[in-house]
Request: fold
Amino acid sequence: MKQLLIFDLDGTLLNTIDDLAIAANHALQQMGFPTHPVSAYPFFVGNGVKRLLERVLPPEQQNEDTVQQLRQHFALYYDAHLTVNTRPYDGIMAVLDTLNSRGIALAVASNKYHSAVTEIINHYFPRLPWVAVEGQKDQYPPKPHPAIVNDILSKHPTETDKVLYIGDSGVDMDTAANAGIESVGVTWGFRPVDELRQHNACHIIDTPNQLLNLI
Reply:
């Protein structure tokens, strides 16, 4: 039986795409750059805020100074609006409650910057006893590097064969593989199922409730 489930955040636990898109477009507008439709953003996100902002910029403007300026505008707006349109996916709350009632430890590993991750988790899932909630920090590289998973395992030591990593993208599947743990790809998130297959997801599920069959 699995003892620890590690969840990606954006596109897995929560549909955050509208708030991310609005904040990025606001930042682009502040600097006089063209914006993008919300429908484009599922393919911009997944590797952290820096890569998101690089991707939304015109190619000739994708330099360090411009990205840093854009990030300041983004963070200022996003930090004030990160729960406006964001919602848990249907069925997530019930499944997390069931897992918790069965004594399974829960954790979050996200490429979103750490302060935003902790605020969002505290807002939407305040009653759950997460053993670790980890976002992107300067001291380790972003997913798919396994550092964030290793950090969680150092805080809640668990044999790797007793762990599941759940996410919606190829980045997540690669993160699990790099950490030597079993992966679960979810089809309700931001990326297509073909991407999950191409990145060798161990399992693919279409509804949160199906996760209960894998533990």
Helices lie at 17-30, 49-56, 64-81, 92-101, 114-124, 147-155, 170-179, 193-198. The longest helix spans residues 64-81. The two ends are 6 Å apart (CA to CA).
